[in-house]
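User: Can you fold this complex?
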Amino acid sequence: MMQGAISNRIRTLRFMNGEMSQAELGRRIGLTRQTIAAIEAGKYSPSLEAAFGIAHVFNVPLGEVFQWEAKASPSKAS
Amino acid sequence: MSYREKIAWLSLAAMAAAYGPYFLLAAKGPGPWEPWPRLHPLGLFALVSIVRMLILGAGYLYFRLAFPREDRPPLDERDRAIEHRSISAAYYVLIAGMILVGCFMPFSSTGWTIVNAAIFWMVAAEVVHCSVAVASYRAQAAA
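Assistant: Here's the predicted assembly.
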C-alpha cells in the first residue's frame, strides 16, 4: 500500500490573508478553532468538504493548501 | 482545551465520584443493620445515579455561566469523528461485559451479584467512551 504524509500551508495562508485567526477561519467553514489548530498542526486530516472549504476561503486551489508526499517504501525482494 | 473535552472530563469525574463508592459498597454487601437487604443495593444505586446527575447538572451549569456562547460551539466533523471512535470502543467493552454477565455468570452467581456485574460493565463502557474521547482530544491538541 502506498503511504504518504500530508502537509499544509494554512499558517502561511492565514498570514497572507491579513493574519486571519484560526477562530475566524473555523467560523467561515463551520469548524471549531481547536479543529483548525489540529489541522494546521497536522494532527487531524479534514474531510474533503472542509479541505475544499479552506481552499475556498483563501481563494486558492486545494493543492496550494494541502500537499501530499509519498514515503519511500522498502523495495520488494524478487 | 475544547468545550467537548471539558464535557468528557466532567463525565469521567461524575462517574468516578458516583460509581466508585457504589462499587466499593456493593463489594462489601449489605450490612447486618440493613432491614431489607434485597432492596439495599437498589436504593444505593438510585442514590449514586442522583449524585451523578447532580454533578453533571452543576458542571453543565458552570460551563454555561463561565463560557460565552462562542466558546460552546456545536459538534463539528472532528468532534463527530472522535465521538464515533469512542462509541465504537465502548461498544466492544459493553458487548464483552454483557456476554460475560448474560452467558456465564448465571451458572456461577445469583441475584445482585449479576445485577451489579451488569451495572459495572455499563459503567466501564461509559468510562471507556469518555476516556477515548479525552485521549483523542489530547492527542490532537496543538502544542
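Chain A has one domain: 4-70. Chain A has a mean pLDDT of 88.
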